[in-house]
């Protein structure tokens, strides 16, 4: 085929508005939009089941927006793109930059190969407000602490002007050797995802709807309410951001149009926390698997598969921890404060290596983001660059009393405790026998005894830390 073809490669930018790579391709006469499910180069970071579910439905909507012309492939992108170049007269290749180390390495090779063949290969920023290499200290080194990084960002500003939906001037082409979406191994073979459909609407339309709902109904109580899991005060934008169904520029622009208040500024700060996670991953590519504070390489993590399984299944005997872990399994999501509490319990009360917790979240979260997941787990474990002090150990009992005092969140995910009075909800082992009987609770049968003593395990963790 001699007709000049432009490849528009989608990956974690599953939208048409404010998508600079697609906007550039839309100016061309003949466009070949492609999506490649790369389950070869990801290695140990191959996409988890919850993320695959989301991806399937997000791609469904994107394909509809492209009039069914999105071409699906599975395998190594370099080989697939080389094959496309052999079948078509590919003159231009556009995609948006990705920041996971394995994707950076892969994409550099693809770009270099395309340029060597004389093609016009361009990449764009569609995922961040600021590229990681643009924010540096005066000596040219990267920041390790968020606050000075954030001050630098605030001083320098950023190009946050989001672009609208591009007009497609040319025609969208298809490849008869492409797969169908259903041929990609994305949807689960067993029905553990049943409740996902009631919780989420993946896709660009769903992302815009979530943003507008948050601005209209939730933002006004964000700074205070975001710590209370029973309240609808968080944005739930994270999976939409991860898959690029909405850009940080679009969110940033929407917030700049609002009146300046503490809720707005607090949310924008959280948006920059996401940026900082990518910043750390870019400058320290071992973030997902190596302690950034190297002294933690000597920390005596315990190999306790039984405790890990209890934690994964929400059977630790600590109701707020168990509610969070069950929310994760049932919905593919967990409230932000409960994420900190469950993570702290695993690494500081059970002394289980943070990487095992990060792996479980990676498999179960619909917003499983390598940068945010890795940075957050290192923060909780105390071994990250901008880490919470190791001695900050969340007490799940007092956290429950403080942030879910009526038990609305906890009892929703642990219905076997629904009749237990709030006085004993977060310490059911202290409830008198008649109270347990009235609530139809048999400890050790209908709900477990605690698998570890909070006070004893805390002291054990602090002793281990002092040895470092």
UniProtKB/TrEMBL annotation:
InterPro entries: Crypto/Photolyase_FAD-like_sf, Crypto/Photolyase_N_sf, Cryptochr/Photolyase_FAD-bd, Cryptochrome/DNA_photolyase_1, DNA_photolyase_1_CS_C, DNA_photolyase_N, Rossmann-like_a/b/a_fold
Known EC number: 4.1.99.3
Record GO terms (molecular function): deoxyribodipyrimidine photo-lyase activity
Ranges where the Photolyase/cryptochrome alpha/beta domain occurs: 4-129
Domain of life: Bacteria
Regions annotated as coiled coil: none
Keyword Lyase: yes
Keyword Transit peptide: no
Keyword list, A-Z: Chromophore, FAD, Flavoprotein, Lyase
Cofactor requirement: FAD; (6R)-5,10-methylene-5,6,7,8-tetrahydrofolate
Family per similarity comment: Belongs to the DNA photolyase family. Belongs to the DNA photolyase class-1 family.
Protein name in UniProt: Deoxyribodipyrimidine photo-lyase
């Amino acid at each position: 085929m001699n007709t000049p073809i432009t490849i528009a490669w989608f990956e974690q930018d599953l939208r048409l508005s404010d998508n600079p790579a697609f906007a550039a391709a839309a100016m061309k006469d003949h466009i070949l939009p492609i999506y490649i499910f790369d389950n070869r180069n990801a290695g140990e970071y191959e996409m988890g089941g919850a993320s695959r579910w989301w991806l399937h439905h997000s791609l469904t909507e994107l394909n509809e927006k492209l009039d069914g012309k999105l071409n699906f492939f599975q395998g190594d992108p370099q080989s697939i793109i080389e094959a496309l170049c052999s079948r078509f007269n590919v003159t231009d290749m556009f995609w948006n930059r990705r920041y996971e180390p394995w994707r950076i390495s892969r994409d550099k090779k693809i770009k270099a190969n395309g340029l060597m063949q004389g093609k016009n290969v361009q990449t764009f920023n569609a995922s961040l407000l600021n590229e990681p290499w643009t924010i540096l200290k005066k000596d040219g080194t990267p920041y390790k602490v968020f606050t000075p990084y954030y001050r630098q960002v605030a001083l320098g500003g950023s190009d946050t002007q989001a672009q609208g939906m591009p007009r497609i001037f040319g025609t969208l082409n298809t490849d008869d050797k492409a797969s169908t979406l259903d041929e990609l191994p994305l949807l689960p073979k067993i029905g553990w995802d049943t409740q996902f459909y009631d919780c989420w609407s993946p896709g660009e339309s769903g992302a815009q709807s979530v943003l507008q709902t948050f601005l209209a109904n939730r933002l006004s109580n964000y700074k205070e309410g975001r710590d209370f899991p029973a309240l609808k005060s968080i944005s739930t934008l994270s999976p939409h951001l991860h898959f690029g169904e909405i850009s940080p520029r679009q969110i940033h622009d929407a917030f700049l149009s609002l009146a300046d208040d503490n809720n707005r500024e607090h949310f924008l700060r959280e948006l920059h926390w996401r940026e900082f996670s990518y910043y750390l991953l870019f400058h320290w590519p071992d973030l997902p698997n190596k302690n950034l504070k190297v002294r933690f390489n000597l920390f005596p993590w315990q190999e306790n598969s039984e405790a890990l399984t209890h934690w994964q299944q929400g059977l630790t005997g600590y109701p707020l921890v168990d509610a969070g872990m069950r929310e994760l399994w049932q919905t593919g999501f967990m409230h932000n404060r409960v994420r900190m509490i469950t993570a702290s319990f695993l690494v500081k009360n059970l002394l289980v290596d943070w990487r095992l917790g990060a792996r479980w979240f990676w498999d179960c979260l619909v917003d499983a983001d390598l940068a945010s997941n890795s940075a957050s787990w290192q923060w909780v474990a105390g071994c990250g660059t901008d880490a919470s002090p190791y001695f900050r150990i969340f007490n799940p009992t007092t956290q429950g009393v403080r942030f879910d005092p009526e038990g609305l969140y906890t009892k929703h995910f642990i219905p076997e405790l629904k009749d237990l009075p709030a006085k004993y909800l977060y310490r059911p082992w202290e409830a008198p026998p008649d109270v347990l009987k009235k609530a139809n609770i048999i400890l050790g049968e209908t709900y477990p005894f605690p698998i570890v003593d909070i006070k004893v395990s805390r002291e054990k963790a602090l002793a281990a830390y002092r040895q470092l």
